[in-house]
Amino acid sequence: MKKDDCIFCKLANGEIPTNTIYEDDDFRVFLDAAPATKGHCLIVPKEHYDNLAELDDEVGAKVIPLAKKMMKLLKEKLSWDGFNLIQNNGRIAGQTVFHFHMHLIPRYTDDGQNFDMKPSEPEEGALQAVLKEIVS
Ligand code: AMP
Ligand code: ZN
């Protein structure tokens, strides 16, 4: 299904032009309009899913193989030094466009970006308590 008021539905289906590097029946991969680094792309399915939780399993199964293929293409063409895959779900997690997408972000020495997590030092027993909440 497409969603009428969704910009990524329009971009993925070619209703609005994009800088496309790859397209198939299920996906379009195009340059992010506000790239974090040179070659920053988005993998966007042609059907609308709000986020990862809503993503169709069959379409979802194709995302990582496609990411791998694009990563290799970008290595060949742009010679990146490292690579981040980022996929945001929900406003608090940084999602601004509510149509599932995955960021492909080539990394270069001294590119000035930093996606590092802030590590914490859990109190004694804290991890076990969380584990119990999740698996019980
Ligand atoms: P997120 O914050 O994970 O939802 O990412 C949304 C991304 O979409 C951002 O990196 C934007 O720069 C990008 N974006 C938004 N509109 C467009 C557009 N028209 N063409 C290309 N990229 C876009
Ligand atoms: Zn959409």
Instruction: Give the names of the bound compounds.
Output: adenosine monophosphate, zinc ion
* Share of residues in helices: 25-40%
Largest sheet: 5 strands, antiparallel
Strand line-up across the major sheet = 1-2-3-5-4
Parts with pLDDT < 50 across at least 5 consecutive residues: none
Q: Based on DSSP secondary structure assignment, what is the total number of beta strands?
A: 5
Backbone shape: globular
Rg for CA atoms: 17 Å
Write up what this structure looks like.
This protein is of the alpha+beta class and 136 residues long. It contains four helices and five strands; from the N terminus they run αβββααββα. The chain has helices spanning 7-12, 57-60, 63-78, 126-135; strands at residues 20-23, 27-31, 41-45, 82-86, 102-107. Strands 1-2-3-5-4 form a five-stranded antiparallel β-sheet. It is globular and about 55 Å long.
